User: What shape does this take?
Amino acid sequence: MTIPVKIRGMEFSVPKLTLTNDDMAKLVETNDEWIVQRTGIKERHVVSGEEDAVTLGIEAVKKLINNTGIDVNTIDMIISATSAPQRPYPSVACEIQSAIEAVNASAFDIVAACSGFLYAMQIARANIASGFANRILVLSSDATSKFLDWTDRSSCVLFGDGAAATFIEKSDDGNDDIIAIHLEAEGKNKEFISLSLPNQNCPLAIPHQNPENLHIKMAGKDVYKYVMQKIPSVVEKTLAKANMTIDDIDYFIPHQANLRMIEALTTRIKISPKKVLHNIEKYGNMSATSIPCVIAEKIKNGELKTPSKVLLSAFGAGMTSAGAIIILR
Ligand SMILES: CC(C)(COP(=O)(O)OP(=O)(O)OC[C@H]1O[C@@H](n2cnc3c(N)ncnc32)[C@H](O)[C@@H]1OP(=O)(O)O)[C@@H](O)C(=O)NCCC(=O)NCCS
Assistant: This one.
């Protein structure tokens, strides 16, 4: 028997600095028309000064704690889906645990890139279902802009920074807010999106050559083709796990990587465009933060009515992919 879970609250934060497409045109040879036509993105937020994945994460978590009124001492675990941290360790999760003084929580990061929120939700769900934890803070936080090649026009225009936080906890009323999650990975496509860190061998060993490019490298066309082939089958498997059809779904929130991809997926999975929610126009691709940011924003502005059954789909470096069906109450 598994223990049902409740999704409680969802908050996000983005840095203040906004870069419009006209700003991007000051950095690389590009223009608003190209970016809007090919991606749908109009602007994105990026960190500056001392801001990073940790400061963004703390802001999102503090908002969540204020809004839910949850006692930090009752948080058993903090999972941060973070793929572009300032430093690989200490983890972003441990930094946040310290900042909010969640003294009873274990804390760790997971790397599943833009699929990270759904991967983290499944880890949280499994820990609650097994009785190991009662309340888990699921976070996503990335300052991807710090790792972009700002001379590569085909990648730097796509991404934005942000963090999102939610509580996954043991359900007291028997209702389960997570109906199904399906996760996949295809490491054979690992070079489609990658980020290398500078490193060295022990001076007594054969020297190692660092890769020339220590920024995010992306084969955009390969990613595009991969997603078009992969996500419809991920959606199909997620619906099958939930014993549902696409007609049972109230809203579809796909990963916010490219509005053209979202439109093509909408057609492929045969869902009405009216049920598809996006905010990529304002934020670009915020990695694992994209999906929870759409949820939080659209609930707040009334575009996402609750209660509703929501289909989520994601893909990211790895390559990883994921689907989920959740109930937002
Ligand atoms: C990156 C992406 C927008 C590029 O769009 P595209 O239609 O495939 O464009 P192409 O790569 O074929 O490039 C077409 C031309 O536009 C140019 N171009 C690329 N970026 C440009 C930009 N920002 N502004 C102007 N021109 C640009 C290219 O250099 C190329 O010029 P050329 O024909 O003279 O060689 C698109 O492939 C994409 O979104 N892929 C998925 C990426 C993704 O989702 N990544 C995140 C994964 S989590």
About this structure: DSSP finds ten helices and 13 strands in the chain. The chain has a mean pLDDT of 96. The pocket of coenzyme A is lined by residues 30, 34-35, 38-39, 114, 153-154, 157-158, 193, 218, 220-221, 223-224, 257-258, 285, 316 (CB under 6 Å).
